[in-house]
Amino acid sequence: MAKKEKSEAELLEVCRQYSGEYVPPFHPETTFATSYSKQFVRAAAELYQRYRADNPRTATHKLYAALRDAKIPSCRGGTMTFSKVEYLVQRRIASYLHDEATR
User: Predicted confidence band at 31 (pLDDT cuts at 50, 70, 90)?
Assistant: First the structure.
């Protein structure tokens, strides 16, 4: 049986649930290095891929607008700005999609 695809609202809810400060388990407790959780990156990557399928040139902006409109905070709990979404796409989502493609 095929896995049911999540709706945009469900993916944004996953992003909301796993947004904010996340310190990977291998970092010391005293670190200030926060990141995006794997669950957040997975959901954001799925949204990004859908937006990219519609129009590759506007995918990052569409992801930014969706996260902003849903009031989902960045990894440090601040406002999700366009530059933070660019970083998310260029570093975390690109890495995730690369890893998925090479599995």
Answer: low
Measured in residues, the chain has a length of 103
Residues 6+ positions from 21 with CB-CB distance below 8 Å: 34, 75, 76, 77
Domain of 54 in residue numbering reads as 9-101
Give a three-class secondary structure readout of 6-73.
Answer: CCHHHHHHHHHHCCCCCCCCCCCCCCCCCCCCHHHHHHHHHHHHHHHHHCHHHHHHHHHHHHHHCCCC
Amino acid at 13: E
CA distance 41 to 1: 25
pTM of the model: 0.84
Is 3 part of any domain? Answer: no
| Number of structural domains in the chain | 1
Query: Is residue 74 pLDDT above 80, yes or no?
Result: yes
Give the tens place of pLDDT for each residue, 46-60.
Answer: 999 999 999 999 999
